[in-house]
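User: Can you predict the 3D structure for this chain?
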Amino acid sequence: MKVPLQRGAQLPFRVDPVAGESPRGYLCRVAHAYAYDGPLSLAHIAALSISGLESDLGSARMAHVLRLEPEEWRGMCYRHVQGPNRFQQRMFRGERISADDLNYRRPRICSACLEEQPTWWAVWDLGLVAACPIHRCLLVNRCPACQRPLGWRRPTVYECRCGFDLRNSSTERAAQDLVAINAAIYRAARVSSGDAAVTCGFPSEMLKLRLGSLLRLILFVGSIQEDGRLRRKQRPFSMTDLLAATEIDRAAVTVLTAWPHHLREVLKSTLPPETTDPTDVLRRNGPVPGSWP
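Assistant: Here is the predicted structure, written as structure tokens:
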């Protein structure tokens, strides 16, 4: 039975969050539990705009509506990091990442994950996550029935706006290199990747990186062109572009598998003759541990 919408009201019962759940996926689940049309109904009750759903000012109001403790909701959200660059950094499950690392507009799913548990996992909100290392399949961001891009404002996490049950989507097997690089991202995000092993010979230093640094490294080295030379100027990459994310992930594997020799040779081909340390390029584009050659 649908509960009437009343601004500022507290929902009659609490829907418990799942550890590792996306905040927007959680809102979809709550809306479905109350038979609402979608998560915007909850924003209406809290008298918040879409941009205010995860804001510092709106978090207490949203938590009240959802019957959550304020810290519960804030802990789920990708809130701004306090400081001079607060609009450029977000918190993601306790890790600092760039705001540009998040994909809000074109959500992705693993239908096999949804079939096992109807939960929209937060790790799918990272723009460079293109495959599920648990089921070793590609993520999808279009409904196979209506062919429209998936939206976060849908009836529930496993149902497209056209009514198609996304759990019935077929899965396409992902190549081992794509599984490996996504397993590395899952690991840095402190998310279990099942029995998927990182077997592509990645350097141990890379596997010790924090999530934000790892995502910057993958984006940087994955932008190397096919002829083995770095682009003088990286092309803009939209985190909503699943195909581009897949290509960047796979290109990053190619460079990082033979670490450090392959990357050093590629860097040398693009640097001025007076440069003696090719890893200077990485230091200018993202943090590199001092122990790396």
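The mean pLDDT is 84. Residues 53 and 59 are 7 Å apart (CA to CA).
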